[in-house]
């Protein structure tokens, strides 16, 4: 079942990203009260659309929110793109270069998120 533990995983990813419930709500275009109830386990079935919006706002794949192994700590909290970048052999790209790329992309993502919030657009709107 997709909703089993989703609230726990949302909380964990949100905290890992340093987001408040309000910041996540703004990024996902979801009511803050809904996030609070979801994290408290009061929402039985968040639905695929909301899980998709939350995963986009948290910069993780839907699989990360739907798969209980992510909450159990059996895998790390890196978004797919970071894990793929870090998996590139050192002979092709040094660890320092990988970290520099990750920092750069995170800044781009943060800038886009800030611009989206400043414009009052929802993530997923055309052109966002």
Q: Taking all residues together, what is the mean pLDDT?
A: 76
How much β-strand is present in the residues? under 5%
Helix fraction by DSSP (H/I, runs of at least 4)? 55-70%
Order of helices and strands: HHHHHHHH
Characterise this structure.
The protein contains 8 helices and no strands. The protein is mostly helical and 128 residues long. The chain has one domain: lambda repressor-like DNA-binding domains (434 Repressor (Amino-terminal Domain), Orthogonal Bundle). The chain starts with 5 loop residues before the first helix and ends in a 9-residue tail after the last helix.
Quick description:
This protein has 128 residues and is mostly helical.
Highlighted features:
single chain; 128 residues; mainly alpha; 434 Repressor (Amino-terminal Domain); 62% helix; globular
List the helices and strands and how they pair.
Elements: H1 6-16, H2 21-28, H3 32-39, H4 47-58, H5 62-66, H6 68-71, H7 80-86, H8 95-119
């Amino acid at each position: 079942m997709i909703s089993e533990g989703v609230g726990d995983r949302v909380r964990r990813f949100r905290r890992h990203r340093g987001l408040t419930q309000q910041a996540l709500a703004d990024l996902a275009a979801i009511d803050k009260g809904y996030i609070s109830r979801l994290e408290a386990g009061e929402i039985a079935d968040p639905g695929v659309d909301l899980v998709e919006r939350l995963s986009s706002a948290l910069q993780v794949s839907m699989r990360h929110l739907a798969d209980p192994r992510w909450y159990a700590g059996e895998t790390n909290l890196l978004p797919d793109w970071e894990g793929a970048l870090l998996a590139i052999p050192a002979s092709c790209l040094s660890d320092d270069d990988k970290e520099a790329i990750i920092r750069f992309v995170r800044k781009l993502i943060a800038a886009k998120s800030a611009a989206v919030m400043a414009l009052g657009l929802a993530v997923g709107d055309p052109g966002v």
